[in-house]
Amino acid sequence: MLPPKELQAQLGHSDIKTTLDIYTSVTDQQRENTPEKFTAFVNFDSMQPRFVA
């Protein structure tokens, strides 16, 4: 996979948003997996010991 910034430079887009809007997409499978990934991300600190004052 080509990094988006390299593709942006190769295509001459001045804004990365243009490149991403044209050349990226989200599959149905990715849409299904997103809630689990997001939950894992926002709960990343739930496994860390809590500081109790």
Would you tell me the structural class of the helices and strands? mainly alpha
- SSE string, helices as H and strands as E: HHH
Estimate the global geometry from the Cα principal axes: elongated
**What is the helix fraction of residues, given as a range?**
55-70%
Kindly report the average pLDDT value. Answer: 87
Total beta strand runs = 0
Regions with little confidence, pLDDT below 50 for 5+ residues: none
Number of helices: 3
Largest beta-sheet characterization: none
Q: What oligomeric state best describes the polypeptide chains here?
A: single chain
Portion in beta strands: under 5%
How would you summarize this macromolecular structure in one to three sentences?
The protein is mainly alpha-helical.
How would you describe the overall organization of this protein?
The model has no long low-confidence stretch (mean pLDDT 87). Helix content is 58%, strand content 0%. Helix 1 crosses helix 2. The longest helix is centred in the middle third of the chain and has 15 residues, at 28-42. By secondary structure, it is an all-alpha fold. The chain has 3 helices and no strands.
Salient structural properties:
single chain, mainly alpha, 0% strand, 53 residues
